[in-house]
Write a structure and sequence with these properties.
- The complex is a heterodimer of chains A (234) and B (378).
- Chain A is built from six helices and eleven strands.
- Chain A has helices at residues 48-55, 78-88, 104-114, 119-132, 148-160, 178-192; strands at 4-15, 22-33, 37-41, 63-68, 71-72, 89-92, 166-170, 198-203, 214-219, 222-228, 231-232.
- Chain B is α+β, with helices and mostly antiparallel strands.
- Chain B has two domains: 2-46 and 251-377, no CATH class; 63-229, no CATH class.
- In chain B, a hairpin with a 2-residue loop joins strand 6 and strand 7.
- Classes of the chains: A alpha/beta (234), B alpha+beta (378).
- Chains A and B meet through helix 1, helix 2 and helix 3 of A and helix 1, helix 9 and helix 12 of B.
Chain lengths: 234, 378
Amino acid sequence: MAEVAVKAVDLVKWFGAEEVRTYAVREVSFEANFGEMLYITGPSGSGKTTLLSVISGILRPNAGTVVVEDKEIWRLTPNELADFRLHTIGFVFQDFHLFPKLTTVENVALPLILKKQDWDESLRLARKFLEVVGLEDRGDLPPNKLSGGEQQRVALARAIVSSPDILIFDEPTASLDGATGRKIIGFIKENLLNEHRCILIVSHDARIFEFADRNLKMEDGRIVEIVSGGISEK
Amino acid sequence: MRGILRIALKLLVNDRGKFTALIVGITFAVFLMVQLTSVFSGILKKASATIINIGASVWVMDPAVNNPLNSIQLPDYILDSVRSINGVKYAVPLYAGVALVKLHDGFYQPATVLGLDDASLVGRPQLIAGKIEDIFADNGFIVVKDEEFPKLGNPELGSTFEINDHRAVVVGIARVSSSTLFGMPTLYTTFRRAIQYIPSPRFTMAYILVEPKSSQDIPHIKAQVAQAGYIARTNSEFQQMVADYYKYQTGIGTNILIMTLISFLVGLSVCGQTFYTFVLENLDKFGALKAIGAKGYELVFMILFQTLFTGFCGYGLGVGLSSLLIAIAKKKVPNYAADITYFNLGLAFVMVLIISGVSSFIAVRKVIKVEPFDIFRG
């Protein structure tokens, strides 16, 4: 049996005061394993991004626990939580959030610099990861000179440069055409997924669902179905 | 931390438009602050020129004196009285007055005349031409070569002019550390000749210059002079009194202060607003950094570093620009009164720190509040 990377138990998250309270996540429990590419899908407003934020240590839940690599993350102090995110999780945001005033290679090196690694060494490693995503000749350009697909790959290189155990993608194909989206996700599965890494992807792009090992379908803050290898478990 | 600060620096300087606006804002504010306070310092220094140039340790004067050139003559017996005080090494009279000098071309030029004690010449200036003993020669006057010197027609040794129908001969050319405030050339002569050449009231001594035996004797000398109904001030007290007079009783100090504050506010508003816009534009990036794992204090350091870096660059440029302009102005405008002091530089530096601090505070509040979750939500 595969080792559990992320374990969420009875997660609840709401927004707003009592009288106007909106539940984004309702009693959600699931496990994600190392070596697994897990999708969280569902219509807009179903709570998938909120769930992703809660399990990645960004948004504190109102109830429930999140255990990542045997560590109950919401018991950590804010600084410990920041360290946890820096060392354990790699993020690829929907809008990439690359710094236009830094070069591409400096953008990729950011997590290493935050880890207080030597500047030149960080850039050297970042260039290596730009090579991995096929952008070795784009390192010295600012990100806004790159195409959407290239920016996506820069964000990907930034997410993996510090070799995190868990990779989190928020709508990774939202701003890409179908072919590029499939190419990127195929690349991720082929090159980045291994037995020591778990990949969580939030998406409502049905064109890339085929790459998922499991797909958690959400509606109204609840997991309504888990699809594994084309077979529904719930 | 060095890597993060390097990132902060790159984010700042690579945003050329905003960085230029920030630098220009602070440079302009520092330039104005240094310029204004230097002009004020220059005015104060020139106002105390006679005190600085004569350099006596203790000055005895009428209590109503508030300016070295508006002296009130002292009766002669006060000199004897001061000389008899225990702790006085010596005490000599000083004449200070204004005379109209008639030049060769027929023009009249007002000049400050200082009459030094005939026996000791206490307070004499440093000569750059001529011999000091020639001051005792017939009609001998020493001319100070300062910014006002050309107003006497650039006289040389042996040049002559008239003072109240008396012939005056230039027997020496001197230099002093400060020229006077009101744009008048300065002439030195003996006390006796000064009162002979210039119409004087009943009493002739403007000040009594006192040298105490030791600095411990000064309080006693002051007390004894006060008993006689006069006042004894040390050199620095006299200068401070003149400075206070110009600061608080002429309106010059208040006006300079208001203009300095306006410069500060201009700098503060330009920098505060530009930096706030800079942070607002990068807010999502700061949120992304937080999500990736940057700690709150690291982002605060980044912003502090950015504002301080901008502040220091603007400070250096502002001080440099101000110094350059003052140096050029002093060469071109003889009466230009500006004197950059460590106090002025320190004041401008403190104001730059406040501008940087306030700009940081506004920006830090925004960055601290940004939630990484907002980045996810887009």
